[in-house]
Amino acid sequence: MACVALLSNPRSTGNRSLLPRVRSFCANRPDIFHYEVEHVSQIGDALRSIARVRPKILVINGGDGTVQAALTELYHGGHFGENPPPVAVLPNGKTNLIALDLGAQGDPLDALKRVIELSKSDLSPHIVARELIALSDGRSRPTLGMFLGGAGLADSILYCRHKIYPLGLPNGISHLLTAFAVLFSMLFGIRAAFLPPRPDLVRVSLVRDGQYQGRFSVLIVTTLERLLLGSHADSSGRMKFMAVEQGFPALIRALFAGAFGRIGRRPVTGVHFERGDVVRIEGSGSSVILDGETFRADVGHPITLTSTPPVPFLRLAA
Predict the structure, then answer these.
(1) How far is the C-alpha of 303 from the C-alpha of 289, rounded, in Å?
(2) Among 16, 72, 281, 316, which is disulfide-ready with 144 (CB 3.0 to 4.6 Å)?
C-alpha cells in the first residue's frame, strides 16, 4: 500500500530539471504512488485516482499555481470524503511561499525523503491546520489558495513574470532586479515601459472591520503564518490583511517594522494590518494574484475573499 501519493506537474518550471530525479527515485519505491498531470485541468482525475489508494500523505510537486489548483479541486471535489490526507508541498517553484510556510526548503527531493520518513511514524505532531482563502469573482466556482497579492505587489509580480523571467536569469537575481526596478520607480516617480506601472486605485472592505481606499505599493491577504516583509502573524483563524500605502517612506517604514516583528503588533504610519472573515477588493481593472493565478477586480464586480474551515497540512520542519 502506498503511504505517500505524489502529484507532479511536469510543466512546472522547477520540474524541468527535477522531475527526472523524482521519477528515478520513485521507480523503486512501492510506498510512493506517483501521478503526473500534463495540465492543471487533469488534477481532478488525478485526485480521484489518488483517493483510491488511500494515501497517508498527499504531496504536491509543482509551483504555487499547481498547489492552488490542487487545493481548489481537493476542496470542491470531495474525493477523500470528510477526512482528506494532510498535504505536503515540495519547495519547487518561483516563489515557494506555501512550501516555506510549511518548513520545506532546499532540495525538493530531500523534502520528499523527509515526507517519507515522517509517513512511517505518528504524523500528529507534524500536522498543522490552515484555513484556505476562497476567492469568488462572481463568474465561476470559488478558487482556493493561501496567499493573495494585489495593488503594487501584483503589478510587481506580473512585471517580473513578463519582463524579467524571460531574460532567463536565476530566480534570486530576477527577484532582486524586480525589487530595484520597483524602488527606483517609486523613489524617482519615473514611468516607463521598462519599469513597473503605478498602482491603480483600489478599495478594500473588511466586513465589520472598516474600509481602505487608495494606492498601495503592497496589498496582501493570507492565511499563512509567515508574511512578507519579515513579519509573522499568529494563527487566529481569520484572514490576515496588510496594505502599505504607495510611497517610498511608507515602504521603508514597513520594511523596518517587519524586520523587527512590529507589523500587526504596533501601529505603523502608512501600514494597515487587520484580520477579517470577509474581504472585498474593488478597483478599475486592478489585478490580484492568488497563488500564481491572476484575477481582475473591476468597478461593480468586486473580488470577494472568505476563509474556509481548517485543512490539514504537513509541516516538514522539526
Answers:
(1) 11
(2) 72
The pLDDT assigned to 232 comes to 52
Give pLDDT, residue 63.
Answer: 80
Per-residue pLDDT of 139-148, as tens digits, reads 778 899 889 9
Q: What is the pTM of this model?
A: 0.82
- Whole-number average pLDDT of the chain: 84
* Cα–Cα distance for residue pair 104/317, rounded to 1 Å: 7
Domains of the chain with CATH codes = 4-121 (3.40.50.10330), 144-307 (2.60.200.40)
What is the per-residue burial (b if ≥16 Cβ within 10 Å, else e) of 201-226?
Answer: ebbbbbeeeeebeebbbbbbbbbbeb
The predicted-structure confidence for 185-196, as pLDDT tens digits, reads as follows 877 777 777 778
Q: How far apart are CA 103 and CA 146, in angstroms?
A: 15
Q: Which of 15-29, 56-70, 201-215, 264-278 has the lowest mean pLDDT?
A: 201-215
Query: Which residues are 244's β-sheet partners?
Result: 218, 271
Q: How far apart are CA 207 and CA 202, in angstroms?
A: 16
